[in-house]
Design brief:
By secondary structure, the chain is of the alpha+beta class. It has helices at 2-39, 45-56, 59-64, 124-136, 204-207, and strands at 67-76, 79-89, 95-99, 104-107, 112-115, 146-156, 159-168, 180-184, 191-196, 212-222, 225-237, 241-258, 272-273. It has one domain (46-273): outer membrane lipoprotein receptor (LolB), chain A (Clam). Strands 6-7-8-9-10-11-12-1-2-3-4-5-13 form a 13-stranded antiparallel β-sheet. A hairpin with a 5-residue loop joins strand 2 and strand 3. The N and C termini lie far apart (76 Å). This is DUF6503 family protein.
């Protein structure tokens, strides 16, 4: 009987050791796979540019968290555009925006809603997706449907930055015809700016008559992930780049990763669906 017990214990120890080696091997493989994604030799120079930005911002750390919450104070033309607490899953599939005036915007990965209905306003859907996209942009550069080209240098405030153009495949998001010109710091690889057009509700030609840019400033770290505390918005053109005085600004504060309750992103029954 003693020999039998000893044999069982030895067999269990060998099995546990094998399982531990197997798990370690699988984890090592996962690590290598992630590294290969970020430093893949077959990436084009523009794609490597995007991967470098994501690495500098610690995108793997960001995406390993369930949800993130922050405050956004946004102004344009000297007037308040939004002052809100924003909570979103780190993959952007669900969003909750609680505005200072009591308006709540919700996205449940299928539809966008507003509560209460008497607070409905034009541009609510734009507010839902635009500002959250700007916040998450450094972590979304290699998402499905992203295309990269035109790697070159451009000047901003008498400093040279690496830039590349981001476009999207068909049926990606609300506005697949949008494009961005992303600026990256040559030393830190952090995102410095993004020129963009807004095609939601208009055709591409009209949108390209009035491109703008967001500049990311004053970076700080939360759980090792890099975020910009300040946003500044400017006019932008292919010839001039970013020019003129700021036309708007945003301040990010109270950033923290959270675990959202199961019903947190469910819109109240009295909500209305917003499509514009």
């Amino acid at each position: 009987m003693t020999k039998y017990i000893l044999l069982v214990l030895v067999s269990f120890a060998i099995f546990s050791c094998q399982e531990e080696k197997k798990t370690k091997k699988e984890n090592d493989k996962a690590t290598v796979t992630q590294k290969d994604i970020e430093q893949k030799e077959t990436l084009s120079p523009a794609e490597q540019f995007a991967a470098n930005i994501q690495s500098a911002h610690q995108t793997s750390n960001f995406k390993s968290q369930e949800a993130i919450q922050f405050k956004l104070n946004l102004k344009f033309g000297g007037k308040q555009r939004m002052n809100a607490k924003i909570t979103m899953l780190t993959n952007s599939s669900k969003i909750r925006i609680e505005k200072e005036d009591g308006t709540i915007l919700m996205y449940d990965n299928e539809k966008a809603f507003l509560f209460p209905k008497e607070n409905n306003y034009d541009g609510a859907r734009f507010d839902m997706f635009t500002w959250t996209y700007f916040f998450a942009l450094p972590f979304k550069l290699t998402d499905r449907g992203t295309n990269w080209q035109d790697l070159k240098e451009n000047e901003l405030n008498e400093t040279q930055y690496e830039t590349a153009k981001l476009t999207f495949g068909d049926n990606i998001g609300d506005a697949p015809d949008d494009w961005y010109v992303i600026y990256s710091d040559k030393q830190t690889k952090l995102m410095k700016a993004a020129a963009y057009i807004v095609t939601f509700g208009k055709d591409t030609a009209t949108a390209e008559e009035n491109p703008h840019a967001i500049v990311y400033d004053n970076y700080f770290s939360v759980n090792g992930v890099a975020f910009a505390k300040e946003w500044f918005f400017y006019n932008w053109s292919e010839e001039k780049g970013i020019y003129g005085d700021p036309i708007g600004s945003g301040e990010i504060s109270n950033v923290k990763f959270i675990i959202a309750k199961e019903d947190f992103f469910i819109a109240p029954k009295e909500s209305i669906e917003i499509k514009k």
